C-alpha cells in the first residue's frame, strides 16, 4: 500500500485528499504525502521500526489518515481502538498488540497511560531529524501486516485480525472492477463517519481513496451526518442500496449485490476473486487472497478459522441459491435450539421486533434448551432520559406490546415470543451488553439478567 499511496500522491498532487465538513482543514494529496514523511520521521526518531505496533486513539479526523499512513510506511503496524473502550479493555489490547507507542487526542491521554510512549496529535508537529524515508517504505513487503483489526469480542476477548498489504491490494483491485466501487474514482467523494477501529471505515474511507485519489470528508460526530450530506454530495448517495456481507477476517471482501442485479433479502454474489460454499452443517465458508494472515499470537484459533485448504470458516449459517446469491441466517454459535429440537435464529426474531417500533433499542431473544422463547427489550436511548420511568409508562408498554404482537405475526409458532420484559436501562455501545459495533454480548447478558430471564419462565 506504500507504493499505491505514493503513486496517488504523484498523480493527483493538487486534489484535496482530506477535509472536514466546514473546510477548516483541507489537505491535498501533495500535503498528505509531505505530512506522512514528517510524521514517519518523528516516529522513527522514537524508535518505531518494521514490525512494531502503534496504537491510535482518535475521533474521526484527518490526522488519523496521516498517522496511520506514516506508521505503515515504516513497515510498522497501526491499529485503532474504539473510543468507548474502558481502561481494562485498552490494557488488554496493548498487551496483545505489544505496542510501545500510542498516538492519541488529548482527551484520551489518561486511558493510554500504560503505554511506554504517549504522543498527542500536537506532538507530531515537532520537527524530527530526517531519515531515508524512501528506502524505508520500499523495504515494506506485500506480506507484511498492514493493520490489526480487533474483533468486537461477543464471545470472549477480542482477537487481533492481521491484515496484510497484499490482502488489501487484492481486495481493492477486485472491488474497483465493480460499478458501485469504481464510482469512487479520481473525482469521487467519500464520507468517513464510522470508527476507524472498524475495518469497513478503513476500507472505504482510507484505503479505497488511497487507490483512486478520491476526497475523504471526516465527520467527527455521526449525529451530524444528515446536515453534512448536502455539503459533501458523496459519490455513492443516490444509487440503490446494495446489501453485502463480509468480515474483518476476509478484509471486508465477501459478497455484494450489484446495482444491475439487485436481489433483496440476500447479500448478493461473491465479489471478484471470492469462492464460497456451505459446510455440511450449513456454515458459510469463504476463500480468497484477501483472507487474513491470522489472529495475532493465537495459532490455535487461526487454525480453527482457516483450514488446510485455505477456507475461512466464517461462523455464519447461510444459504446459496441456484443462481449464486448468498443469504445469511445467523451466527452459528447463536442459534437457539428449541427444547423440541428445532433450530431457530435469534437475530430473525429480534429484528422482527425492532422493525416494528422505533421506540425499541435492543432486543435479545432467549430460548436455547427452553420450552419457549422470551425476550429482554430495552428502549432506544433517544426515547428519553429516564429509562426507569419509560419502562413503566403505560403508553410505552402498550407500544412495545403491539410491536411484539406484530413481530409474532410474521414468525412461526415456535419462534414467537411468549413473554418479554422492558428493562429499566439503556444499553450503549461498548457497555456490558453491547460491543462497540452494537452486537449483543449474549453470554454476559444471560449472566447479568439471569433473575429477569428466570422470572419470565416462572411467570407462565
TrEMBL record:
List the InterPro entries hit by this protein, alphabetically: AMP-binding_CS, AMP-dep_synth/lig_dom, ANL_N_sf
The UniProt record lists the keyword NADP: no
Top-level taxon of origin = Bacteria
Task: Give the keywords, sorted.
Answer: Fatty acid metabolism, Ligase, Lipid metabolism
Q: Which GO terms describe its molecular function?
A: long-chain fatty acid-CoA ligase activity
One short Pfam name that applies is AMP-binding_C_3
CDD domains, per database record: VL_LC_FACS_like
Q: Which family does it belong to?
A: Belongs to the ATP-dependent AMP-binding enzyme family.
The molecule here is called Acyl-CoA synthetase
Amino acid at each position: 500500500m506504500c507504493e499505491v499511496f505514493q503513486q496517488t500522491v504523484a498523480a493527483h498532487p493538487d486534489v484535496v485528499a482530506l477535509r472536514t465538513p466546514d473546510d477548516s482543514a483541507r489537505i491535498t494529496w501533495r500535503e498528505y504525502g509531505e505530512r506522512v514523511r514528517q510524521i514517519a520521521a518523528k516516529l522513527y526518531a522514537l524508535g518505531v521500526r518494521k514490525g512494531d505496533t502503534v496504537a491510535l486513539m482518535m475521533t474521526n479526523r484527518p490526522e488519523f489518515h496521516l498517522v496511520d499512513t506514516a506508521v505503515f510506511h515504516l513497515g510498522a503496524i497501526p491499529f485503532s481502538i474504539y473510543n468507548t473502550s474502558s481502561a481494562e479493555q485498552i490494557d488488554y489490547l496493548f498487551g496483545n498488540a505489544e505496542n510501545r507507542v500510542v498516538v492519541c487526542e488529548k482527551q484520551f491521554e489518561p486511558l493510554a497511560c500504560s503505554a511506554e510512549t504517549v504522543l498527542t496529535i500536537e506532538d507530531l508537529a515537532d520537527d524530527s531529524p530526517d531519515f531515508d524515508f524512501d528506502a524505508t517504505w520500499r523495504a515494506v513487503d506485500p506480506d507484511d501486516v498492514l493493520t490489526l483489526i480487533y474483533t468486537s469480542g461477543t464471545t470472549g476477548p477480542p482477537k487481533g485480525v492481521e491484515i496484510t498489504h497484499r490482502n488489501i491490494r487484492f481486495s481493492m483491485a477486485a472491488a474497483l472492477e465493480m460499478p458501485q466501487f469504481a464510482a469512487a474514482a479520481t473525482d469521487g467523494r467519500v464520507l468517513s463517519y464510522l470508527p476507524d477501529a472498524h475495518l469497513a471505515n478503513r476500507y472505504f474511507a482510507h484505503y479505497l481513496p488511497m487507490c483512486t485519489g478520491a476526497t475523504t470528508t471526516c465527520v467527527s460526530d455521526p449525529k451530524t451526518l444528515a446536515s453534512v450530506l448536502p455539503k459533501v454530495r458523496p459519490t455513492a448517495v443516490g444509487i440503490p442500496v446494495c446489501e453485502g456481507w463480509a468480515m474483518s477476517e476476509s478484509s471486508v471482501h465477501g459478497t455484494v449485490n450489484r446495482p444491475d442485479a439487485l436481489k433483496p433479502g440476500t447479500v448478493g454474489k461473491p465479489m471478484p476473486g471470492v469462492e464460497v460454499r456451505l459446510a455440511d452443517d450449513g456454515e458459510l465458508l469463504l476463500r480468497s487472497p484477501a483472507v487474513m494472515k491470522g489472529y495475532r499470537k493465537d495459532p490455535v484459533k487461526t487454525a480453527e478459522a482457516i483450514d488446510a485448504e485455505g477456507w475461512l470458516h466464517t461462523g455464519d449459517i447461510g444459504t446459496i441459491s441456484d443462481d449464486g446469491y448468498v443469504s445469511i441466517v445467523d451466527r452459528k454459535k447463536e442459534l437457539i435450539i428449541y427444547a423440541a429440537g428445532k433450530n431457530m435464529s435469534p437475530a430473525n426474531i429480534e429484528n422482527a421486533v425492532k422493525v416494528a417500533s422505533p421506540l425499541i433499542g435492543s432486543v435479545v431473544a432467549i430460548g436455547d434448551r427452553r420450552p419457549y422463547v422470551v425476550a429482554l427489550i430495552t428502549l432506544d436511548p433517544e426515547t428519553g432520559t429516564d429509562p426507569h420511568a419509560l419502562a413503566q409508562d403505560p403508553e410505552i408498554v402498550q407500544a412495545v406490546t403491539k410491536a411484539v404482537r406484530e413481530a409474532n405475526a410474521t414468525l412461526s409458532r415456535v419462534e414467537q415470543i411468549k413473554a418479554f420484559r422492558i428493562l429499566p436501562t439503556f444499553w450503549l455501545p461498548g457497555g456490558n451488553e453491547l460491543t462497540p459495533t452494537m452486537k449483543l454480548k449474549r453470554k454476559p447478558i444471560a449472566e447479568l439478567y439471569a433473575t429477569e430471564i428466570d422470572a419470565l419462565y416462572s411467570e407462565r
